[in-house]
Design brief:
Largest sheet: none
Radius of gyration: 16 Å
Low-confidence stretches: none
Structural class: mainly alpha
Distance between the termini: 47 Å
Strand content: under 5%
Number of domains: 1
Length: 163
């Protein structure tokens, strides 16, 4: 029973996933706040050969591999792609801010674009979502984060004053 409690705590991101409405949006907003206040090490002045971003990228990959079987286990109790499972929102948001300048505007724009792609589910994201064993749950958010990141990178490239 204690193991399930720990599993539920992590996949629901401290039980944020238990909010009855918009648990994914609430979790994404929470990680945006955490990103802004605690991920200052991603600022350009702290970058040494992009090392912090590569460490973040590596962490996202490792956490993805760790959480896929944990999500699969949670789905057995809560059902497929349960709204309680929101760890995928955290990882997807972190993909959205990867290699972006660290700022309040990036935090906000990443939140907005990530949620748009996560909710709208463009064609590839919609298909990946159907993958079994926890993979669909996590990969659709990673792709939504990638779409958001590409969008933000393009805006930053062509309209850097926007940030």
């Amino acid at each position: 029973m204690k193991l399930k409690f720990v599993r539920n705590f992590f996949v629901s991101v401290g039980f944020l996933g238990y909010f009855p409405y918009a648990s994914g949006t609430i979790t994404s907003a929470a990680i945006a706040v955490v990103y802004y206040f605690f991920f200052d090490f991603l600022s350009p002045q702290h970058q040494v050969l992009f090392l912090p971003n590569f460490l973040l990228f590596s962490s996202i990959l490792i956490l993805t591999l760790i959480f896929v079987p944990i999500i699969k286990s949670a789905e057995k109790d809560w059902g497929r792609d349960s709204k309680k499972i929101v760890i995928d929102e955290v990882l997807g948001y972190l993909v959205a801010v990867l290699f972006m300048p660290h700022s309040l505007l990036v935090a906000i724009y990443a939140f907005i674009t990530f949620r748009i792609f996560d909710i709208a589910k463009p064609p590839i994201i919609d298909e990946v979502q159907l993958l079994p064993h926890g993979w669909g749950v996590i990969l659709d958010d990673l792709l939504a984060g990638l779409y958001a990141n590409i969008t933000l990178q393009m805006i930053n490239l062509f309209f850097p004053r926007f940030f």
